[in-house]
Amino acid sequence: MTTPEDQVLLRQAIELAAKARANGNPPFGSLLAGPDGTVLAEEHNTTRTDNDVTAHPELKLARWAARELDADTAAGTTMYTSCEPCGMCEAVIQWAGLRRVVFALSSEQLLDIRPGSRRPPVPKDGPALLDEVRAVFEGYYR
Q: Among 58, 68, 108, 132, which one carries the catalytic annotation?
């Protein structure tokens, strides 16, 4: 459930999405707020202007948080974003240890606005060569 304070910050993320669109990029914007609601960092999508398919604002903010914030601070932050994070961004948000994500538009709602944008899954084969790869990994995570 979002609070009135969440809605204020979510509107700022939507403004960042409008900025992305005005700059010729897909309309996605995000910000990261501390526990007291202070905006720590903000980003908008730059996939077209940077010619980088990974230049999603959520990914850029999660990478910033992992680099710039200690674990306790990251664990107290909330990401506000114009659209539900994609799988790539969601994974990085989780690895960065962020506490919460608040989004305006769900992935399903986005597909209603942008039909035909779902890409087919990439085929995967594996696991394979377990003994060889296990030798590389064993002992690293102790």
A: 58
Question: Structure pTM?
Answer: 0.89
Identify which has the larger pLDDT, 122 or 5.
5
Q: Tell me the pLDDT band of 44, cut-offs 50, 70 and 90.
A: very high
Rounded-to-integer distance, Cα 100 and Cα 16, Å? 19
Compute the distance between CA of residue 48 and CA of residue 54 in angstroms, rounded to an integer.
10
Contacts of 80 (CB under 8 A, 6+ apart): 6, 9, 10, 12, 13, 30, 31, 32, 33, 101, 102, 103
Measure the CA–CA gap between 77 and 38, rounded to whole angstroms: 10
The residues, ordered by sequence, that sit 6+ positions from 30 with a Cβ below 8 Å of its Cβ are: 13, 16, 42, 43, 44, 57, 58, 61, 79, 80, 81, 82
Which is nearest to 84 in space by CA: 56, 118, 53, 107?
A: 107
More confident residue, 108 or 24: 24
Higher-confidence residue of 84 and 115: namely: 84
Is 58 assigned a catalytic role?
Answer: yes
Which residues are registered as beta bridge partners of 15?
none
